Amino acid sequence: MFSLFKENVRIAFDSIKSQLLRTILTILIIAIGITALVGILSAVSALENTISSDFSSMGANTFNIQRYDFNNQRVNDDVKINPVISYREVKNFEDDYQFPFTTTSISFQGTTIAEVKYENEKTDPEVQVYGVNENYISNTGLEVELGRSLNYFDVQNSNSVCVIGSDLRKALLNDVNPLNKTISIRGAKFKVIGVLKEKGSTFGNNQDLRILMPLQKARTIFTNANINYSLSVKTDNKDMLEGAQDEAILLFRNIRNLNPIEDNNFGIERSDDLINRIATMTDGLTVVAWVVSIITVFGSTIALLNMMLVSVSERTREIGVRKALGAKRATIASQFFIETIIIGQLGGILGIFLGILVGWGVSAAAGFQFTTPWLAMISAVIITFVVAVISGSMPAIKAAKLDPVESLRYE
Q: Taking the model in full, what pTM does it have?
């Protein structure tokens, strides 16, 4: 039995070699559909992993108050312009927000193009500088890998200290212990008290090339007229999140003097809300991937079916000889089934390889966290097998039913 199967496999490969051009074109048609499926699903999976790791680290028990929601608010097809969140507003919120078991962080982005100096070394003007309070690091899911975080006294006393990102350490202080070293930003000197754990980049935004300094100290360096502040509230218990969020909205509406019929002129977002929104978007991309793949695979099924029917016609005399020598119908049918399965799997393997390359390329270009798309790869193997079975059924049956006498007369 095994020797017969081995013989059929050998015959199938010989047949494939004899019609190489048609086989290559059919394999490419199959591979295009699988590439589309694996490539898109790989990119979507990488996007989901990146978003989840970036925002789930904030915790499901955290929400932010900021100038806008993540999605643009529109009124009459025009972008709604919300006023900036001022320092007075965030301080009033911090002083008046008394919901139990919560911590509030305040932050603002001073600049994204700072040049940082250490002795005779300096960075390119691409460092992000943030003014933050003592709760910012824990509320945003950051971790201090070396040294310590900013504390209450650093913020209240406007100490000239800072916590730096891992990439900034590599660029400026890679050969020395960064703790207690003095760096310069816009002429102001700061002592490094901590280094953040590496976070990577999202959508091209490097989260490790930044500096966190006490809020009040940052305000003396960055004195723009319309600085926009952000608030982040973290609850100790996830079950208390809804109540904490409702009270925060009510308080901030009062701070902004909004009457009961006015809409919020600020945004409020939870990290899990954004993750769910991204998941909805990626579900749409997944559907697109499957639709494109199914359409292309349908075309490849027809192409493979046509190729095998032509192969049966061209090899009618060969089939007659094999039957005359005692080959059974099942043996002839299995020969063509094996041939179609081999062609289908070659197309699937090529499509998987190209799809992974596409997904990896998109992930690398966008800064996503690429992971091996096992589901897409398994789906591709199953799809190509089904295509082979469907495409090989009719030719295999046709070949098995050929009359040996008539086949031997065929020219």
A: 0.64
